[in-house]
Amino acid sequence: MNLEKVIFGFFIILACTLNFGFFIGDIDEPALHHPMELGAAVAVNLIATVLKFGDRTHLGATHLATSLVASLQLVAAAVFWMVHVYGQGLPMDGPSVSTVVSLSGGALLANFISIILLIGETLRQGR
After folding, report:
1. pLDDT per residue as tens digits for the range 11-46
2. How far is CA 96 from CA 46, 72, 81, 93, in A?
3. Distance (Å) of CA 118 to CA 26, 86, 89
4. Where are the domains positioned within the chain?
C-alpha cells in the first residue's frame, strides 16, 4: 500500500464530503449552513490542492485544475460571508446565504470531478 496515495485520496474525499455537508439543506436557510463547516471545507480543499502540486502528468494537471476551481469558489464564499457579517455588520439572510451556498455548489461539482478522476486513475492502475 502506498501511504502517499492513501493520504492523497483521503484529503480529496474529505474535501468533497465537508463541502457536501455544508452544501446540503435549504439554500436560503442560514441555520442549516454553519460557517465553521465552510471554514473546514476551505482548509481541507487548500490542503488537497497543495498535495496535487507534485504530479507532472496530464491527469495530475487536471486534478490540480479541479482543486484550484474548488478552492477558489470556497474561498470566494468564505470571503463573501466574512465581508457580509463582519465587514458590513449584517446578519446572514436568505439571499446572502444563497450566494455562499451557490458558490459552494460549484466547488462541490469540481470536487465530484476530482473524485471521478481519482476513481478512474485507480481503476486504470489495477490493470
Report:
1. 999 999 999 999 999 999 999 999 999 999 999 999
2. 24, 18, 8, 5
3. 30, 38, 41
4. 3-125
